[in-house]
Amino acid sequence: MTEASSRRLRLPRGEGAGAWLCAGSVALSLLALLALLALLTVRGLGHFWPSPVELVVLEDGRQLAGERVREVPLAEGDGVERLYRTGNRDLDGDRWAWVRVSAIEAVSHPADIVVLERRRWGQAIGRLAAFEAAGGERLEGEAAWPALEARLDELDALRDARDRLREEVILPLAGQRVEDSAERTLDAAHARLRELQAAMAGGRLSLATADGETLSVPLEQVLGARRPNAMSPLDRLAVWGDGVWRFLSEGPRAANTAGGVWPAIFGTVLMVMLMSILVTPFGVLAAIYLNEVAHQGRLTRLVRIAVRNLAGVPSIVYGVFGLGVFVYGIGGRLDSWFFEAALPSPTFGTGGLLWASLTLALLTLPVVIVATEEGLARIPDQQREGALALGATRLEMLSRVVLPMAAPAMLTGVILAVARAAGEVAPLMLVGVAKLAPQVPVDGDFPFLHLERKFMHLGYHIFDAAFHGGDVQAAMPLVYATALLLVLVILVLNLTAIFLRHHLSTRHGALTRR
Question: Where does the record say this protein resides (predicted)?
Answer without folding.
Answer: Cell inner membrane; Cell membrane
